[in-house]
TrEMBL record:
Pathway stated in the Swiss-Prot or TrEMBL entry: Cofactor biosynthesis; Fe-Mo cofactor biosynthesis
Superkingdom of origin: Bacteria
Annotated keywords: Nitrogen fixation
GO biological process, one term: protein-containing complex assembly
Every Nitrogenase/oxidoreductase component domain range: 45-443
Stated name of the protein: Nitrogenase iron-molybdenum cofactor biosynthesis protein NifE
Length: 496
């Protein structure tokens, strides 16, 4: 078995996965691999998943060794944000052509591209990604990266996650393996302390991490590395000296968290920063782990004081929306940590959950959801677009929260929709983020446009039009109906 195949098999055999732990030894050895089916990577291939995990490391040059289309389709695929470096916003690719493939010039072109990036930008490191074409023709990016690192005196990290090997989630894990093999543990910090933590699976979408970091700063807790949200290469390289790890999205980087615990004795827990209660619980668990690892026990008291202050402010702001949203029905078509964390957050203010997708959720996610909902009938693996449209068009929900790919189903059903996936424009993490999420839901549900689009069109109101047909031949019945409709006001549509 090749080293790359062994790496993939190792990822599939993840011991920390509850599903794997429930298998017998023979089944566990086979892992979770299964043959790919046409369209299986429609939600993102392994290359896409690796890019999602690593591109938010903002001061690194990300070089795609592939034809131009691979970088064009994957670049800027997440709404992540940086508080400083902008090099990650520059797109680098070797732009392989048919001639390069036929003449075997791929590896030579890659080495030249690394040299040009080093001379022009002098980054602290260069990440090199393989793709389907370069994997199929056999370009050895690991050998090229090793030679380039020796020649140019900077880390050149190979990321072996071509799209053809599997899904986006597999790519997430392979990116974590690349960090373990080539980055984490390569730099020894001179300022390590008892209040250092890592946060894994936080992507800083729309700047969400910036709503959480001030809370940790007030407690004197330093985020040694946020992987990958708003990260820096040296911070990631020294992440092995943190005292605790919080996993925000376990399906993405559970292998990274487990192996960091095994190698460097960094305890971990999975938590969420969505919702008032979950944010408070995450802060408590972080403080508790740090105290167990040697931090001053006084940290626990300071944490409770901060939680009491922030919860009082948050609940006071949410009271303004409780009366308007009490009993409103929400359908969640997402997955992962949001399948249970957002559900819990919304139920805190009286919103009813009519259904939530658990397609990308772990066994632990599903167990948490069962405890929250008390009814498994509200959980579904996936809904076909036809079924989703039928559910919405029958007004079984007042709003749908999902990603951009299903927004048009809601809009066709004339139901409000709010984006809570990576393309969103507003941060929803932490205490302030919860208030913002509820505010956006309130704005979407009570937008008067929904009452208007549900009204029959003027040309469908035949009796009313026939009663007032124009007397002149110069004005048609349709034009007359439009003029009459244009003179209506919002009051004519009744209560929204």
């Amino acid at each position: 078995m090749s080293l790359f195949n062994a790496k993939i098999q190792d990822v599939f055999n993840e011991p920390a996965c509850q599903k794997n732990q429930g298998k017998d030894a023979k089944a566990r050895n086979k892992g979770c691999s299964k043959p790919l089916t046409p369209g299986a990577a429609a939600g993102g291939c392994a290359f896409d998943g690796a890019k999602i995990v690593l591109q938010p490391i903002t001061d690194v040059a990300h070089l795609i060794h592939a034809p131009l289309a691979c970088e064009g389709n994957s670049w800027d695929n997440r709404g992540t944000a940086s508080s400083g470096p902008t090099l990650w916003r520059t797109s680098f690719t070797t732009d392989l052509t048919e001639l390069d493939v036929v003449m075997g010039q791929g590896e030579r072109k890659l080495f030249k591209a690394i040299r040009e990036i080093k001379e022009a930008y002098a980054p602290p490191a260069i990440f090199v990604y393989s793709a389907c074409v370069t994997a199929l023709i056999g370009d050895d990016i690991e050998a090229v990266c090793k030679r380039a690192a020796e020649k140019f005196g900077l880390p050149v990290v190979p990321v072996n996650a071509p799209g053809l090997v599997g899904s986006k989630n597999l790519g997430n894990k392979l990116a974590g393996e690349a960090l373990l093999d080539h980055v984490i543990g390569t730099v020894e910090p001179d300022d390590a302390g008892p209040y250092d933590i890592n946060i894994l699976g936080e992507f800083n979408l729309s700047g969400e991490f910036w709503l959480v970091k001030p809370l940790l700063d007030r407690l004197g807790i330093r985020v040694r590395a946020s992987i990958p949200g708003d990260a820096r290469y040296l911070d990631v390289a020294s992440a092995h000296r943190a005292r605790a790890t919080m996993m925000v999205c376990s399906t993405a980087l559970i292998n990274l968290a487990r192996k960091m615990e095994e190698r460097w004795d960094i305890p971990l827990f999975e938590g969420s920063f969505y919702g008032i209660t979950d944010t408070s619980e995450a802060l408590r668990q972080i403080a508790g782990l740090l105290v167990k690892k040697g931090a001053d026990p006084e940290l626990l008291d300071r944490t409770e004081t901060l939680i009491a202050e922030e919860e009082a402010i948050g609940w006071k702001k949410l009271e303004a929306y409780r009366r308007r949203l009490q009993g409103k029905r929400v359908l969640l078509n997402t997955g992962g940590v949001k399948s249970w964390s957002v559900v819990h957050a919304l139920m805190e203010i009286g919103i009813e959950i009519v259904g939530t997708s658990v397609k990308k959720s772990t066994v632990e996610d599903k167990e948490r959801l069962k405890q929250i909902l008390k009814d498994e009938n509200h959980m579904f693996e996936s809904l076909a677009p036809r079924e989703l449209y039928a559910m919405l068009s029958e007004h079984k929900a007042d709003i749908m929260l999902s990603g951009g790919r299903t927004q048009f189903i809601a809009l066709k059903a004339k139901i409000p929709w709010l984006d809570i996936n990576q393309e969103r424009q507003h941060p929803y993490a932490g205490y302030d983020g919860m208030v913002e999420l509820v505010r956006q839901i309130d704005l979407a549900i009570h937008n008067p446009i929904w009452c208007q689009v549900r009204e029959p069109a003027p040309w469908d109101c035949q009796p009313a039009v026939k009663d007032e047909l124009p007397s002149t031949k110069s004005e048609t019945a349709t034009v007359h109906a439009f003029k009459k409709f244009a003179g209506t006001t919002a009051d004519d549509f009744g209560e929204c």
